[in-house]
Amino acid sequence: MIGLTNELGHISYSEDVIANVVGLSTMECYGVVGMAAKNTKDGLWELIRVEHLNKGVKINAKNNELSIDLFVVVEYGTKISVIANNIIQKVRYNVENYLGLKVNSIVVNIEGVRF
C-alpha cells in the first residue's frame, strides 16, 4: 500500500489502483495501440486488453515517491519520441493531480510497433 498523509488524515492506495490510473492515462495518448505484458511461457510480449492494463505497468514506491515503468505498443508511422513525451506528461499530471502522489520518474519501454 502506498500512502499519503495530510492534515485531514491518511489515504492509502493499492498498487493496482495506481497502475489502472497509469494504464488508462497511457491509453488516452495519441499513437498508443495498447499496453504490453510478457508472456511467461514463451518470453514473448503480448498486447493486453483494456480490462488488464495494470499488467503493462510496474510501480515502485520509495519514500512516498513513485517510479513508474510502462510497457507499450505504438502505432506504425508515428514519432516514438513524441508519443513517449506525451505519455510521460499525461501520466505525471494524472497521478499527481488525481491521486496526490509525487512521481519521481517514468520510463516508457516501447515493446512493439503495430501496423
CATH homologous superfamily descriptor: Cation efflux protein, cytoplasmic domain
Label the CATH architecture: 2-Layer Sandwich
Largest sheet composition? 5 strands, mixed
Q: Helix coverage percent of residues?
A: 25-40%
| CATH level 1 class label | Alpha Beta
Number of strands: 7
Number of helices: 2
The shape is: elongated
What is the mean pLDDT? 86
Give unreliable regions as ranges: none
Distance between the termini: 38 Å
Number of domains: 1
Strand content: 35-45%
Task: Kindly name the structural category.
Answer: alpha+beta
CATH topology: Alpha-Beta Plaits
Radius of gyration from the alpha-carbon trace, in angstroms: 15 Å
What is the H/E order?
A: EEHEEEEHE
Would you give an account of this structure?
The structure is a single chain. This protein is an alpha+beta fold. The protein has one domain (14-114): 2-Layer Sandwich (Alpha-Beta Plaits). It has helices spanning 15-27, 80-99; strands spanning 2-6, 9-13, 32-38, 45-47, 57-62, 65-75, 102-114. Strands 3, 4, 5, 6 and 7 form a five-stranded mixed beta sheet that branches. The protein has a two-stranded antiparallel sheet with strand order 1-2. β1 (2-6) and β2 (9-13) form a beta hairpin. α1 crosses α2.
Q: What is the topology?
A:
Layout: E1 2-6, E2 9-13, H1 15-27, E3 32-38, E4 45-47, E5 57-62, E6 65-75, H2 80-99, E7 102-114
Parallel strand pairs: 6-7
Antiparallel strand pairs: 1-2, 3-4, 3-6, 5-6
Give a quick precis of the structure.
The protein has helices at 15-27, 80-99; strands at 2-6, 9-13, 32-38, 45-47, 57-62, 65-75, 102-114.
